[in-house]
Amino acid sequence: MAKPRRAFTLIELLVVIAIIAVLIALLLPAVQSAREAARRAQCVNNMKQIGLAVHNYISSNDVLPLMSMQNCPSCGWGPGYTGWMASILGGLEQGTVFNTINFNLYMNDMANTTAGIVQPSVFLCPSDDTTVRPSGYWATSTYAGNLGGPVPMQFWNGVIVPAVPNLWYPTGGGPITIASITDGTSNTALLSEHTGGLNGNPVILLSSNQSKKGYYAVPGFTSGAPNAPNGTQLALDFIQGCNSLPNTTPSAGTWVFGWSYTQNMPYESANTTYVHWNTPNKTSCSGYGPDPSTIHAAPTANSHHSGGVNMGFADGSVRFVKDSVNMQTWWALASRNGGEVVSADAY
Predict the structure, then answer these.
(1) Residue pair 147/156 in contact by the 8 Å Cβ criterion
(2) What range does the record give for the signal peptide (predicted)?
(3) Could you say which of 9, 122, 318, 329 has the lowest number of CB atoms within 10 Å?
(4) pLDDT tens digits for 100-141?
């Protein structure tokens, strides 16, 4: 007599499938978390390399790289200004790319397209989606130098600032030396993260999951004059207006962040620099409507990391700053010579 065949019943099969599904549901977040931890570690390493390159630049030139430097006076006011990231290419083992730049020409001249288009991976945080460049073709960056803040922005009290005098502002900028960072290099921000812009400048609502890539106009805001006695109050009013914008607010621009790492005009605060007005991962705003380059825009540091942003300090270290950082502490980290005392446990 033949023995009966052994097999799974339908119920047993369904139970096994359910157990496998539960295991997958438990393991998938852990896998994603591990991948993000690896991306964040690579992001930190990139920022350390950039910080080291900045210090190599200081060793050679005695000053920090300028946010924008008019390398081609005969070019007029156009893109004859070199961005600060192009200045440190040699310290990032990108000397071959740096040597292709002809500083006697516009940065967007055909002769400079090699440097302008070749993408150094060290300028990209792996957590950000940079498969499409904001400009469509110019190499980009998801890191930005500390321009300063909070008010008035003409102070340029950060460390990555434009050369002065220039066509727009006669005073207040660089070059900046290590000695002028009197607050201490370990208490002063050098750079942080900013998610890259969107190609084609699409309009996105503040409620969008891509709103970090845009900036939003604050109606009725007026900037104060340099050293205005009510400057702090103007900043607080601006930030309150920015954070009170309804979720249905359309973006004033989405293409500008990181549109080109090699080019930077002195009035551009949202390409390769950011400011310490709003705290990390809050809304980036402008008080002057749909002008994506104005010095009065306030692009804040943001990232796709959970809970905060990586920040490189002027001493070359990199630390994680939480979204919950106190605003006064955030402002204090911006200034190179404000005289503030910031403890390491404040952020």
Answers:
(1) yes
(2) none
(3) 9
(4) 998 888 888 888 999 999 999 999 999 987 678 999 889 999
Nearest to 201 by CA among 125, 132, 267: 132
Number of domains, the chain:
1
218 touches 285 (CB < 8 A): yes
Q: What is the rounded distance in angstroms from the CA atom of residue 80 to the CA atom of residue 69?
A: 8
Separation between Cα atoms, residue 305 and residue 128, nearest integer Å: 9
Q: Quick check: is 196 in a domain?
A: yes
CA atoms within 13 A on the CB side of 294: 17
Are 328 and 232 a contacting pair, CB within 8 Å? no
| Residue 241, token pair as written in the block | 């207006």
Could you give the CA distance from residue 311 to residue 40 in angstroms, rounded to a whole number?
A: 12
Rounded distance, CA 273 to CA 143, Å?
8
Q: Is residue 103 domain-resident?
A: yes
State phi, psi for 320 to the nearest 5 degrees: -95, 125
Q: What's residue 292's pLDDT?
A: 39
Residue 216 lies in a domain: yes
Cβ neighbours for 208, distance < 8 A, ≥ 6 positions apart: none
Q: Which residue has the tokens 């290590």?
A: 178
Give me the domain span that covers residue 45.
36-346
Structural contact between residues 242 and 218, judged by C-beta atoms closer than 8 angstroms = yes
Residues 6+ apart with CB under 8 A from 278: 239, 242, 243, 284, 285, 298, 300
CA-nearest of 200, 191, 36 to 133 is 200
pLDDT tens-place string over residues 299-321: 899 999 999 999 999 999 999 99
Tens of pLDDT, residue by residue over 218-242, are 887 755 555 566 667 777 888 888 9
Q: Please state the rounded mean pLDDT for residues 57-61.
A: 96
The torsion defined by the Cα of 158, 163, 167 and 169, in degrees rounded to 10, comes to 30
- One-letter amino acid for residue 118 of the chain: V
